[in-house]
Design a protein that fits this description.
Length: about 130
């Protein structure tokens, strides 16, 4: 979830690179530039899915002392299509389908964070139901 919060902030800073540069404001987006910001944004948006899958699979495959994340967390994959739409907006930033696609990327990322968080909460509730049921 923290990575998605950073993605929201990064999308905002990425959009503001030109005005920040005029004001001599330094942000990660400004340091990375446009292409680096695209790569960083992709990592921030997709890493939560990879981490969840790793926390589900690796302890099951490798054994060891750490318990695996419950299988109910597979429900977060329902948010993957939205993450792919965000990625499409970011990739098309120079020639957006709609004039506001890139401008509102931070807000769209915030909505994605909400969906991901709600699905994560649902996974915890489902795990409780499965264990108690």
């Amino acid at each position: 979830m923290a990575l998605l919060v950073i993605a929201i902030l990064h999308a905002n800073n990425w959009r503001d690179i030109p005005s920040d540069g005029e004001r001599r404001v330094t942000t990660v987006a400004g340091v990375l530039g446009d292409r680096g910001s695209l790569t960083y944004y992709g990592c921030l948006v997709f890493a939560p899915f990879f981490l969840d899958m790793a926390f589900i699979a690796v302890p099951r495959l490798a054994g060891g002392p750490l318990p695996p994340m419950p299988l109910t967390f597979l429900v977060v994959l329902l948010a993957l299509p939205n993450a792919l739409r965000l990625w499409g907006r970011a990739v098309r930033r120079a020639a957006p389908r709609s004039p506001l696609d890139f401008v509102v990327l931070d807000g769209a990322t915030a909505r994605h964070n909400l969906v991901f968080g709600l699905l994560s909460t649902a996974a915890v509730v489902l795990e409780g139901i499965v264990k108690w049921g």
